[in-house]
C-alpha cells in the first residue's frame, strides 16, 4: 500500500516538473526544474529496479546536461545585458 502511494506521488511529481519545465518563461527556472526532473527520473528508475539506468540518468540527465544548460543560460543572459547596454549608450 505504501509503495503504491510512493509510486503515485513520484508519477505526479514527474508530470508536474515536466509541465513546469515546458511552461516556464524564465530560462534559469526551466533549467532548474529540468534538473529536478532528472533527479526524480533517476528515483523512478531505482523504483523500477534499474540502478544502472538510474545512475546514468543522474549523471548525464541531471548532472552533465544540467550544468551545460546552466552555462548556456548564463551566456545568453550576459549577451542580452551587453545588447541592452549598447542600446542605451547609442540613444
UniProtKB/TrEMBL annotation:
Membrane topology classification: Multi-pass membrane protein
Subcellular location: Cell membrane
One cellular component (GO) term of this entry: plasma membrane
InterPro entries to which the protein is assigned, alphabetical: MrpA_C/MbhD (IPR025383), Nuo/plastoQ_OxRdtase_6_NuoJ (IPR042106)
Major location category of this protein: membrane
Domain MrpA C-terminal/MbhD: start-end pairs: 13-76
Key word Hydrolase present: no
Entry superkingdom: Bacteria
Keywords tagged on the record: Cell membrane, Membrane, Transmembrane, Transmembrane helix
A UniProt-annotated Pfam family: MbhD
Membrane-traversing stretches: 6-23, 30-48, 54-73
Name listed for the protein in its UniProt record: MrpA C-terminal/MbhD domain-containing protein
Organism, scientific name: Marinobacter vulgaris
Organism lineage: Bacteria, Pseudomonadati, Pseudomonadota, Gammaproteobacteria, Pseudomonadales
Amino acid at each position: 500500500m505504501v509503495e503504491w502511494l510512493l509510486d503515485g506521488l513520484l508519477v505526479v511529481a514527474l508530470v508536474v516538473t515536466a509541465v513546469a519545465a515546458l511552461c516556464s518563461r524564465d530560462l534559469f527556472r526551466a533549467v532548474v526544474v529540468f534538473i529536478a526532473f532528472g533527479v526524480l527520473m533517476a528515483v523512478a528508475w531505482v523504483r523500477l529496479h534499474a540502478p544502472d539506468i538510474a545512475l546514468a540518468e543522474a549523471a548525464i540527465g541531471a548532472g552533465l546536461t544540467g550544468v551545460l544548460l546552466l552555462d548556456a543560460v548564463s551566456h545568453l543572459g550576459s549577451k542580452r545585458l551587453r545588447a541592452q547596454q549598447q542600446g542605451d549608450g547609442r540613444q
